[in-house]
Amino acid sequence: MRWIALLRAVNLGARNKVPMAELRTRLESVGYENVRTYVASGNVLLDGPRSPSVLSAEIERLIAEAFGVATTVMLRRPHELAATIAAHPFGSDASETHVAFLAARPGKAAAARLDAVDPGADLAVLAGAELYLRLPRGVHGSRLSVARIEKLLDVRATLRNWRTVVALADLANEA
Predict the structure, then answer these.
(1) pLDDT at 11 (0 to 100)
(2) Residue 173 dihedral angles phi and psi, to the nearest 5°
(3) Any residues with CB less than 8 A from the CB of 48 and at least 6 apart, and which?
(4) Closest among 90, 159, 100 to 129, alpha carbons compared
(5) So what's the pLDDT on residue 41?
(6) Statement: 81-174 belongs to CATH 3.30.70
(7) For residue 44, which of 29, 28, 30 has the smallest C-alpha distance?
(8) Phi, psi (degrees; rounded to nearest 5) at 27
(9) pLDDT (average), residues 9-13
(10) The two domains 2-76 and 81-174 share their CATH topology (first three levels equal)
(11) Which strands sit side by side in the sheet containing 73-76, from one edge to the other?
């Protein structure tokens, strides 16, 4: 079964270093097939077991043991990533779009906390386990940092720009 694994908070400057080529080799050595990485921000495509909880736990354990990095792995299937792209809420211009992939769907109370926040010039649309963000001032100029999103929604998140989301969907469909 094909998966896209999105690693949270790896390779951020000098912190949480996970060399993608070495990760790819280690995943292959424990039996995963068709392993491919995309850019250094923690994107892995691979064929793995049907159970997302088993797969995420195995990848998290492998990364902790091999690199000493504690991360959360958000998994998506190719059709889920395609649905994320199809549901883009901000019109045809996606140049300022980012997607926060969430580890789980937030509850109603968490969604209400997000709705109560004044995002300034940013826009945020929660759709299941994805949070679409339109960030005209970029990630660093946003009032909705990943840390704040996680606190508001009470769930782990990892952020990808729109180009990366589209590239991952394309790569997932090649296999």
Answers:
(1) 82
(2) -80, -15
(3) 1, 3, 32, 55, 58
(4) 100
(5) 87
(6) yes
(7) 28
(8) -65, -40
(9) 82
(10) yes
(11) 33-38, 43-47, 2-7, 73-76
**What is the SS3 assignment for 51?**
coil
CA 68/CA 29 separation, integer angstroms: 18
Whether residue 13 has pLDDT greater than 80: no
CATH of region 2-76, choose from 2.60.40.1080, 3.20.20.70, 3.30.70.1280, 3.30.470.20: 3.30.70.1280
Chain segment 45-102, per-residue pLDDT in tens: 999 989 999 999 999 999 999 999 999 999 999 999 999 999 999 999 999 999 999 9
Query: Residue 100 is encoded by which pair of tokens?
Result: 């926060």
Question: What gap in Å lies between CA 10 and CA 145, rounded to an integer?
Answer: 16
Neighbours of 2 (CB within 10 A): 15
Q: Where are the domains of the chain?
A: 2-76, 81-174
